[in-house]
Design brief:
Elements (H helix, E strand, L loop, with lengths): L7 H11 L2 H23 L25 H6 L7 H22 L5 H13 L1 H4 L8 H20 L4 H14 L4 H17 L4 H32 L1
Helix pairs in contact: 2-4, 2-5, 4-5, 4-7, 7-8, 7-9, 7-10, 8-10, 9-10
């Protein structure tokens, strides 16, 4: 019969053969550069005013509109465990880099490394690492924001799962909505510059609008339900 279980060596060989080089470069460069930059926060916790009050925190921030934050941060537990939280954050950023370079259609290895390095080192993102107790949840929000536009672009009805990803990203922290907005604008501009029929191009552009509207409406409706329940 067919053997379904694969050894770690077989899995590694499969990944080497099937995964594109730019994907591997994006993931590894984001993780390595991220570790080099953010290691101080991962090997020791330097608590700030919020951190002192969050050594153990359920992340129940529904009153602030963050109804998915508790789930996102719950993967690492509700204790402040800098190493575990930091490793998860690096994995999320590595995956976000993969989807980002694919969305931007970047193939050149050096460009991929630079984009990944910029993502993990950008000051607005790096500053969130000061709040180590929510670091993994927030980086999941970045991943979901990038994934939302990637799905919209690459899948036939991708704006539907893209809307789900956007709603979850906003529900972790609303500040990452601009990532999806900026990438959507870029996607629309790329469609406008492509050759093709005007009607088809307009329909492809509208997919980003559908994703944004459905995502924001879904987020708001679920928020109202959660507020009523709690």
């Amino acid at each position: 019969g067919t053997r379904y279980m694969k050894s770690p060596a077989e899995i590694m060989d499969y990944l080497k053969q099937k995964v594109k080089k730019e994907y591997k470069a994006a993931f590894l460069s984001a993780v390595v550069i991220g570790l080099l930059i953010h290691m101080p926060m991962m090997i020791r916790d330097i608590p700030n005013h919020d951190g002192l009050d969050s050594m153990h925190f359920s992340q129940n921030m529904i009153v602030s509109g963050r109804w998915f934050l508790s789930v996102a941060c719950g993967i690492s537990s509700y204790y402040t465990l800098p190493w575990l939280i930091g490793i998860l954050a690096m994995i999320y950023l590595g995956l976000a880099s993969v989807f980002l370079v694919d969305f931007l259609e970047v193939k050149d290895t050096m460009s991929v490394v630079l984009i990944s390095g910029l993502l993990v080192s950008f000051p607005a993102l790096a500053s969130t690492f000061a709040y180590v107790f929510t670091m993994d949840g927030y980086m999941m929000a970045v991943l979901l924001a990038v994934l939302a536009v990637w799905l919209t672009k690459n899948k036939r009805m991708g704006f539907v799962p893209g809307a789900v990803c956007l709603a979850l990203s906003i529900a972790i922290y609303q500040a990452y909505l601009p990532i999806a907005v900026i990438l959507s604008i870029y996607g629309v501009l790329m469609i406008a510059m492509d050759k093709g029929e005007v009607k088809e191009k307009l329909l492809n552009m509208l997919r980003y609008l559908y994703m944004g509207l459905l995502g924001c409406i879904g987020y708001y409706v679920i928020l109202q339900i959660m507020l009523k329940l709690q």
